[in-house]
Amino acid sequence: MKASQFLISTLKEAPSDAEVVSHQLMTRAGMIKKLGAGIYSYMPMGLRVIRKVEAIVREEMNRAGAIEVAMPVVQPAELWQETGRFDKMGPELLRIKDRHERDYVVQPTSEEVVTDIARQEFRSYKQLPKNLYQIQTKFRDERRPRFGLMRGREFTMKDAYSFDRDQDAAKASYQVMAQAYRKIFDRFGLTYRAVAADSGAIGGDLSEEFQVIAATGEDAIVYCPDSDYAANMEKAEALAPQAPRKDASLALVKTLTPGKSTCADVAEYLQLPLQNSVKSLVLATEQTNEQGEIVKTQVWLLLLRGDHSMNEIKVGKVPGLDNGFRFATLEEIDAHFGCLPGYLGPVQTKLPVKLVVDREVAVMSDWVCGANEADYHYTGANWGRDLPEPDLIADLRNIVEGDPSPDGKGLLAIERGIEIGHVFYLGTKYSRAMNATFLDVNGKPQFMEMGCYGIGITRLPAAAIEQNHDARGIIWPDALAPFTVVVCPISPDRSPDVKAAADKLYAELLAAGVDVILDDRGERPGAMFADWELIGVPHRVTVGDKGLKDGQVEYQHRRDAAATKVAVAEVFAFVQ
Ligand code: ATP
Ligand code: MG
Ligand code: MG
Ligand code: MG
């Protein structure tokens, strides 16, 4: 590829909504372009990365015996009604109607369609096991799309589904996939951990998430450095024997400035990744001056464990609540700051609540709160799982760092992860609901045993960047790089020798099967290098007049502090 014939559009500044480094760098490197919330165009530079992810995933899936298929993105609702998910699934499922007012869904995953294929195709035990996979567009109407490709609404997933004749065979198929996942993530050069995950109503231990270790990850994972124990927080908590450390935790989440802030600023704090047992309450306080004007409004988040009555809440010490603050009503906040977050609307309640602060009882009124029932208990408040958990949730955990590991082999550590893959034993959940049977050895119909296996194809490059970047930009592992090598001629317009040598090297690398790009745009060296460092091409070869006189070029790996002079022929040893 020649850079002049490609689309390279780098930016100095990241967009203001890009909170994490992968989103900033992918945008600045011209890899993605936002079209709407959680909806991105994969620009040519970014698409090359995604295609590399797909190729490796496809290769390892094929190697593991899975068969590629492509299922429709738009799927008739009838299948989803068979399993009940059309109604059960909630707003993440995008439902659409055609011109005849018939219902459809845009696939967030494809158990229904693949089970429909299986019940038509796999009639005899002789046709099993089978594993069907696709690499396809998915749509999930995420409550809070964020972090660029990390949590998009439209994204690409590899989803595989295994069909087996009995439980043992299904568990073997599961293990084959779990092994293939390890190979895949090893090939990408990622630091990751496979952790036990909740297997929901199905039970058993056959659900694992593959978590790329990164401080910006949305999931908390618990592991023991001295053993194989590793689980996501949800799973670890569910099994933790000890009582929660605290009942409640309160934190100031936002100070609002009249005329400047909007309640949308507050909204993100209402979407905490709460565990089932943790409820939340949003409070607002106002401080007024002597003229009665509001000088400060603060939003507090109160998290509670267990079933607390709304009439009395123990919160321990509340910092900042003792000097002229009062609780504002929702209407008052609305009047000052404009619109309120929509989901506060229907579930808000204002009640007189007795607040127990440091064992002193203070009676407060007009609390603003969310997600409760008319009986003054909040139940099942869950505003999504889309935000890194703040420390106040850690307060409410059953598990903290240093607790003994359940296997008794050491102490627990906690770190953050990005879920890039998930393997899941399904049992007969879908085959029963959809009557997917095969005839066993005795000619008797049996429900197929299933498993499902996902990889976030478009999330993976973002996760890789979280692990591999520096102040100048992305540092791609070779397996993911949009180009493996960039050849950078210095002032080729002024030196025919440089141009000829760069063209020749480029042609030779191409002939050797190296994924190389020649930067023939005629940019000044500084700008040219800055572009490639931002884009993150791992190997750079600079061709300049001075070196050429001695038959040399400069080689620099993206991680190297400086370039090394090498003979032209030596370049191949570095880049292959
Ligand atoms: P999360 O917990 O992050 O919401 P999930 O558990 O809902 O993910 P799965 O249903 O297990 O996701 O889907 C398989 C894989 O698809 C995930 O492991 C993840 O890598 C990817 N994925 C899920 N949701 C998104 C998304 N909104 N954007 C990009 N990738 C996603
Ligand atoms: Mg999800
Ligand atoms: Mg998950
Ligand atoms: Mg998952």
Structure description:
There is one protein chain. 25% of the residues lie in helices and 29% in strands. By secondary structure, the protein is of the alpha+beta class. The strands form eight sheets. Strands 3, 7, 8, 9, 10, 11, 12, 20 and 23 form a nine-stranded mixed sheet that branches. It is globular. Residues 261-267, 269-273 and 308-389 have low confidence and may be disordered. The chain binds adenosine-5'-triphosphate and magnesium ion (3 copies). The site of adenosine-5'-triphosphate (ATP) has 15 residues, from strand 8, strand 20 and strand 23. Its EC number is 6.1.1.15. Residues 38-477 form the Aminoacyl-transfer RNA synthetases class-II family profile domain. It comes from Rhodoferax ferrireducens.
Task: Pick out its properties.
576 residues; alpha+beta; 30 strands; 25% helix; globular; binds adenosine-5'-triphosphate; binds magnesium ion; cytoplasm; aa-tRNA-synth_II
Q: Can you summarize this structure?
A:
By secondary structure, the chain is of the alpha+beta class. It is 25% helix and 29% strand. Helix 1 (21-28) packs across helix 12 (459-467).
The radius of gyration is 28 Å
Strand content: 25-35%
Mean pLDDT equals: 82
Structural class determined from secondary elements: alpha+beta
- Low-pLDDT sequence parts: 261-267, 269-273, 308-389
Major sheet, described briefly? 9 strands, mixed
Globally, the shape reads globular
